Amino acid sequence: MPPPASSIAVRAEALVKTFGTTRALDGVDLEIPSGTVLGLLGPNGAGKTTTVRILTTLLKPDSGRAFVAGHDVVADPDAVRRSIGLSGQYAAVDEHLTGYENLYMVGRLYGMSRSDASTRARELISRFRLDDAGDRPSKTYSGGMRRRLDLAGALVAQPAVVVLDEPTTGLDPRGRMDTWEIIGELVADGTTVLLTTQYLEEADQLADTILVIDHGKVIAGGTADQLKAQVGGERLEIVVADAAELAATAQVLAEVGSDAPTTEEHQRKVLVKVDTGPKALVEALRRLDQQNVSVLDVGLHRPTLDDVFLALTGHLAEEKPEAETDDKKTKGRKAKSR
Amino acid sequence: MSVITANARDSGVVTWRNLMNVRRQPDLLLGATLQPIMFVLLFSFVFANSIGDDPAAYREFLMGGIFAQTVAFNSAYTTIGMAADLEKGVIDRFRSLPMARAAVLVGRTAADLAVSAIGLLVMSLCGLLVGWRIRGSFLDAVTGYLLLLLFSFAMSWIGAFIGLISGSVQVAQSAGFIWMFPVSFISSAFVSASSMPGPLKAFAEWNPITAIADAARDLFGNTARTGVLGRSDAWPVQHAALYALISCAVILLIFAPLAVSKYRKVASK
């Protein structure tokens, strides 16, 4: 079979990788058109990092094939390495080198001359708003600054494909917003990006196409909207003042909703899927008012990717920043039902 | 660019990076110089009076041994440095770059060689303070230092291999040092091998550290006053410099390919 057409920047076919008895990847296919962002979404241990490590030549697949920028990752790893920039899930910066020195070193190792590497490093330091810190050892940086430096490292050689493995894991909200902004700029420049994340919001914000991966398999794919459409409908949420009113509320929501409501007693909340949107909301409130139920909060939500994940896998893909992020050690999280 | 120039350039970049690390963490250098100074002082003043009957002669004898032991310990620094780079993900970044494969290892061992040279310098000054002198020719002295550095470099490759199989910095910290103690003490570094009981004597005679220590003594002209600290008739003892060179070559021939192949395997896990 010939290598993929040039309009496809990254292609993987039936990738399989086993660690001991754990099947980390169980036949993963993916394709990223040039200049687009693919979000690989899944919980810890789903196989995201393994996929990234194969595509960046850090790991050989047991079977299957992959091409990056037209080069076979197994047969021609050096050509692949020249075409990619990798930013890891922990910032792989040398903490004793300054920001500038880190980027200079990476430039030199891409084969740039001393002066080119130096110019490029200065350019990126200022583009990533590290001017004031550029000549300080990077161990003095905040988490967000380190991540920016690591991202900059992936861009030194202006590679055709940038791979970002969980770029915001462990960052505070400000650091996350910062990183998103930079990825946004990258995309505007026409770079092809493969992004892995366990944050649904992140995939929604940044990716053109999302692949949902779980237990080493791609279980769904499409745009964020397409995925949300798979779950269908909106959700009506009512929070009541008194737990004693939950039963009556559930009764009302059963009447206006399109399936059986669920009750979250701790939060005194009842949820139900609705097909008629605002109309169902007004109707529910009218009936609750008739029954003198005091409503504290009410909301109508389009399904989030969280709902998508729950619908697809039967478990949530919620944030667990303290969890082990090593594909080899972690299994999928326990099923959780509402 | 040819493979060799690319290799040299990438190794140079990694060496620079490692030396910058040493410069920014002076405590690393402190470890590499403080221990030999401590040994020089301890052995010169605590043991010198009870080993043999001429403390000044013992100090003269001692320096070659401490030089050999110190450069041998260089392997432990390589072990720890290698394990730390693996643990921190620096190796992953290197591996994702289109750089020469061996450059990470060459850059590590080359930087550790430079640290080793600084250690030798500090120790020589310390030796001069306790009465040690270079009594041979200038050329012999230069040869002596070069031989010590070659041994340091060879030991560094053993260290790199151990660092790669350690799996973590904690393991590397003990694995890097623990084997150095018997290996450096069962040698003629501190006492003559000929005074040891049978099996230990045989081990010491064939121990490269004995050869390095004795060769250094010969080349620095420190053998005139050794008295009871004389040497046995074993071949490696009688041909210390030659055996030292052979040992370095054998260590490099075994451990450089081992470390490179282990590096590829470890890094692709």
TrEMBL record, chain B:
Membrane-spanning residues: 28-49, 61-84, 105-132, 144-165, 177-196, 240-260
Domain ABC transmembrane type-2: residue ranges: 27-266
Topology of the protein relative to the lipid bilayer: Multi-pass membrane protein
The organism's place on the tree of life at top rank: Bacteria
Entry's localization field: Cell membrane; Membrane
Transcription listed as a keyword: no
Any one Gene Ontology BP term: response to antibiotic
A GO MF label: ABC-type transporter activity
Family annotation (InterPro entries): ABC2_TM (IPR013525), ABC2_TM_bact-type (IPR047817), ABC_2_transport (IPR000412), Nod_factor_ABC_transporter (IPR051784)
Record has Transport as a keyword: yes
Listed PROSITE patterns: ABC_TM2
Gene Ontology, cellular component aspect: ATP-binding cassette (ABC) transporter complex
Entry keywords, A to Z: Antibiotic resistance, Cell membrane, Membrane, Transmembrane, Transmembrane helix, Transport
Annotated family: Belongs to the ABC-2 integral membrane protein family.
Protein name, entry field: Transport permease protein
Species per Swiss-Prot/TrEMBL record: Actinokineospora globicatena
Organism classification: Bacteria, Bacillati, Actinomycetota, Actinomycetes, Pseudonocardiales
